[in-house]
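User: For a reading group we're discussing how well predicted structures match intuition. Take DNA replication and repair protein RecF. Before you show the prediction, I'll give you the sequence so everyone sees exactly what went in.
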Amino acid sequence: MSLIRLTVTAVRNLHAVTLAPSPRINILYGDNGSGKTSLLESIHLLGLARSFRSTRLAPVIQNDQLACTVFGQVSLPDDGVSNLGVQRERNGEFTIRIDGQNARGTAQLAETLPIQLINPDSFRLLEGSPKIRRQFIDWGVFHVEPRFLQVWQRLQKALRQRNSWLRHGKMDAASQHAWDRELTQASHEIDAFRRAYITELKPEFQAALAELVDIDGLTFSYYRGWDKDRELQDVLSASLNRDMQLGHTQAGPQRADLRIRMGSHNAADILSRGQQKLVVCALRIAQGRLINRVKRGQCVYLVDDLPSELDEQHRKALCRLLEALNCQIFITCVEKESLESNWHDDTPVALFHVERGTITQTPPLGVKHE
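Assistant: Thanks. Here is the predicted 3D structure of DNA replication and repair protein RecF, as structure tokens, for the group to look at:
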């Protein structure tokens, strides 16, 4: 997939804009605060109906507007085109349109336009809570395993039912047993999907990391959320009293984690910021490779402030690795010269200068670029 056309209205400080981006490399350059990240945020809104910069809508929508809108034409693997539109309103309401029809949720949106984000907050994948790493895993599983979403929804419903009973005790024994059985079955299916995905992801991650940086002793493992030597039903039974005291289920796939370590330490406690960035980039690139292999579609990568934390050698290595994915990439930087020469001559590169919310396409320095 790639964006053929993008129209943005009333997102932060951006003036209304319509772009026809390159199907490959798009470099957005300009001073800090000019609106570069806001354009990436707009694409993220189009793919997921939410911002990556704020959980609040107020900062995303321009002060004098009631809503912001993003429209996009997306090329599909079968040479077709899909038209997407997302509108977010100040009152929290949102509208998603896909090919002229209202969509009830974001899953179809994410399926049509898979978004991979690499930005300064990406360090949280290493140093943040397990929830962030579970979301990383599940995003990948969602795109390569068609059965995942339905089972994940079953799991969430079973967890809500059990946690409600733990807090209020208003469930008969037969219902309690039925929901525990449903929770256990869905948990094992989710775990199997995740485990199969991690098995595929690990060698891709190791290969991508080796192309970026040499880090000895880095390990990568998956924790399923309960004791690997015990059945989940046994764990739930043994921890029932404790679960009732806390009011929620302690064991299960909702506690899963991806553990990236250096010896006995979390990798985030040992690695430099530049090394952390390269590890995160390797994880995101590995996911893109899996999607390319399993599906005909491809991710759209949003890379905010790529040059930060990286020297020239590692910037060039990262650019070449992204380029090899053969997908659409939007990259921001302050000075275009820090990135423009890092691509092969036959790779289409589009340059966009962003100044005070206005975006203007500019001619590239390399005459062979499109």
